[in-house]
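Recall the central idea of this unit: under ordinary conditions, the amino acid sequence of a chain determines the structure it adopts. In this exercise we apply that idea directly, starting from the sequence alone.
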Amino acid sequence: MEILITNDDGIYAEGIYALAVALKKAGNVTVVAPDTQRSAVGHAITITDPLRVTEARRNGKFFGYAASGTPADCVKLGIKAIMKKRPDLVVSGINLGGNQAYNILYSGTVSGATEGALLGIPSMAVSLDTFKNPDFGPSAEFAVKVARQMARRPLPKGTLLNVNLPNLPAKKIKGVRVTNQSRTCFNDWFEKRTDPHGNTYYWMTGDYEPKDADKASDLNALRAGYVSVTPIQFDLTDYKFLSELEGWDLH
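Accordingly, the structure predicted from this sequence is:
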C-alpha cells in the first residue's frame, strides 16, 4: 500500500514523525508536509506564489519533502508531482490538538485529508486532543489499525474519516466510538494587549462551550475518554432545504 502523509503542524512536528514511523508497518510511506506551522488555514491553496519543495531530514536521514504551501497544497503536490505511484491512502496528522465539532472547518489537518478525498483517494485525519505533554504513540498505532481496515473496506465516494484520540495511555482509553460531528461552537474571544512600542494588538483565545447534549458526538466521546471516529464529507449542500428553497420567489 502506498501512503501519503501530510499535516498542518509542519514537517518537523513530532506528531507527523510518530505517524510516519508507525504507518511503515502498513505500507510504503511518502511524507509531503508544510515547511513550517500552517495550523487553522482550512482548505486554502496557493495560487499566486510558486511552491518550493526541499528535502527534509530527521535524525540525519531523509524523512520527506517540505513544501512552502498549505496541507492541501502538499497533498496535491504529493499526488500530482512527487510520488511515482498514485497513493492508496492519504493520512493527515497527527495533529497537536483535537479537531472536532465546528473546528474541522478551520483545520488544516482535516483539509489535508479532505483534499485526498476530493482527488478520489481514501483519506483520514488523525488528531490528539491535547496541547500539553502529548503522547503520540497510541494515536500512531490506532492510525495503523484504521489504515489496514481502509485498505480492505472502501469508503463511500466523497467520505473521509476524522479520527480524534484523548491524550491517555493506551490502557486507559476506554474504547472506540463511531460518532457524529458535534454542533458545539468554539467560544472565542480576543485579549487586548499592548506591544513594547505602545501599539495595540489582539490575541484570539477561547474554549468549547461546556455542554453538548448529543451523547453521540465526537466532543463527548473524547471527554469520556474514548477514541472518536467520524465519517465526514465535503458536499456542503443542505438537501433537506432544497425543496423549500425551490418555493422561494427568486425568478
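The chain has a mean pLDDT of 95.
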